[in-house]
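Lab notebook, bench 4. Continuing the backlog of folding jobs that were queued last week. Each job is logged with the same field layout so the records can be merged later without manual cleanup. Today's entry covers Phenylethanolamine N-methyltransferase, a 283-residue chain. Filled in by technician R.K.

JOB TYPE: sequence-to-structure
TARGET: Phenylethanolamine N-methyltransferase
LENGTH: 283
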Amino acid sequence: MSGTDLSHAAGAAPDPDPGRAAVASAYQRFEPRAYLRNNYAPPRGDLSSPDGVGPWKLRCLAQTFATGEVSGRTLIDIGSGPTIYQLLSACAHFDDITMTDFLEVNRQELGLWLRDEPGAFDWSVYSRHVCLIEGKGESCQEKECQLRARVKRILPIDVHQPQPLGAGSLAPLPADALVSAFCLEAVSPDLASFQRALDHITTLLRPGGHLLLIGALEESWYLAGEARLAVVPVREEEVREALVRSSYEVRDLRTYIMPSHLQTGVDDVKGIFFAWARKKVGV
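JOB STATUS: finished
OUTPUT FIELD FOLLOWS
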């Protein structure tokens, strides 16, 4: 269960690293709708059970934003994939949100939803659930309207480049906060590549800014239609160590163990991690 974004950015030269080049090649077969069906429609997309994976992720995000500590003007979502749920709690705290993905098909999928076009994926179950747990009396339509208004751009990204958004990026930099869900481990052929990708995206964040990172634990592959994508398996402690090496103070790190009834054969994920980290100042 993984997001997307990766290796030789639009117009860039082919990646000389064979591992990353293989990942980039595999992602050309990624099917956004198949990925959404596998992970955001029932059973994984059933939000009626509080111990489900969907409610857990939404709760982690809502509780963190409810502290009031993660706020500012600008936020960048790193490797959005074809999903928007990861920004439903964020949009009340940031006026200028940038969504990003390596794949044009995912950027097109996001555009359908942001323009509220017929045929866009229906996220109303997710927005309704977020409104419920935030308890502010908002309707899901109001929540979605606010998110659409605050996403200012959808840009290509390549987390394996030292400048992930390229030179002369349209996104205001450095950002006050970053969000990234199921991206870094899903586009990195090994743990060293995962670390470098984390270092690269950290350059987009101001000192003292916050990173909210969600990802798969001990997953080695997942399906998105005909595409079978390799994932670097990471453990909770490896995530913590990577954040510390990238000059973060880890504020919160939680783990969700994937129950057997949600192990549906579309991946071999064992669990999910949620990390809240603050970039150190003066490092």
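OBSERVATION: Strands lie at 74-78, 96-101, 151-156, 175-181, 205-217, 221-224, 227-230, 248-257, 271-279.
SIGNED: R.K.
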